[in-house]
Amino acid sequence: MDKNKIQNYGDELYEALTNCQMVEPLTDREPDMTIEDAYGVSTRLLERRLDSGETVIGKKIGVTSKAVQNMLNVYQPDFGYLTDAMVYESGGTIPVTEKMIQPKAEGEIAFILKKDLKGPGVTTSDVLQATDFVVPCFEIVDSRVRDWNIKIQDTISDNASCGYFALGNQAADPRKLDLSTVGMVFERNGSVVATGAGAAALGSPLICVAWLANTLGQFDITLKAGEVILSGSLVPLIPIESGDHMTVQIGGIGSASLCFE
User: What is the dihedral sign for C-alpha 202, 208, 214, 218?
Assistant: First the structure.
């Protein structure tokens, strides 16, 4: 794809984000779109967000669990950027109809870094050494692509379908946990709707963060000290409706909750 097309698609997705509107799948219009093209679109989308006053505060890996891959028919991870405009407090309320289009909730472990990580060659041991602490996290994914009819290029272009996120108020030292075996319970309106474990995300959330650092290293991008790194959902995507109250609890780490109106 030429540079003008990439820029135009990034602008289109930014307008869709701003106006809570859906767009037709990019891959329907550009069947030969490559992964590199898609990251170009994502970069343009980020540029528009930064121009509007947002600040990058972290990164995320998406489509890590088999359950999510099967739901979306997307079978490889991707990455996106987190900005300060995406943050909600645990226990807070998100206005669904004002802020989102077709949202779904994920439960995952967030890493807060104390040292930079940059690939290639980042290992899970490097991730542990670079992590200050981990916290439970909600990520609210929200595709701007109509009906979640996405291929990997569509979700990459759309900032890995990221919407908002909320971090729990409890923190844990990952060096004192086996992050592959920690368990997660996801409740919606008081009922358990999903359970999972750390191994659901590529075998371990540590593997996810290492993958992210090494993949971003190919683009000369660093995971920076102080950033929030979302390591991928441990449960399937949970649909959100106005009036929902959701809680995620992770063994040995803590909990987070959100309300939707």
Answer: positive
Cβ count within 10 A of residue 30: 19
- Rounded Cα distance between 45 and 66, Å, is 28
How many Å apart are CA 177 and CA 252, to the nearest integer?
7
The alpha carbon of 198 is separated from its chain's Cα centroid by a whole number of angstroms, namely 16
- Burial (0-12, 13-18, 19+ Cβ within 10 Å), 235: buried
Q: Which domains are assigned to the chain?
A: 55-260 (3.90.850.10)
The pLDDT, as a whole number, for residue 76 is 75
pLDDT digits (tens, 9 = 90+) for 145-178: 999 999 999 999 999 999 999 999 999 999 999 9
Instruction: Tell me the C-alpha distance between 181 and 105, whole Å.
Output: 21
| Identity of the amino acid at 71 | M
How high is the pLDDT of residue 223? 97
Contacts of 92 (CB under 8 A, 6+ apart): 166, 258, 259
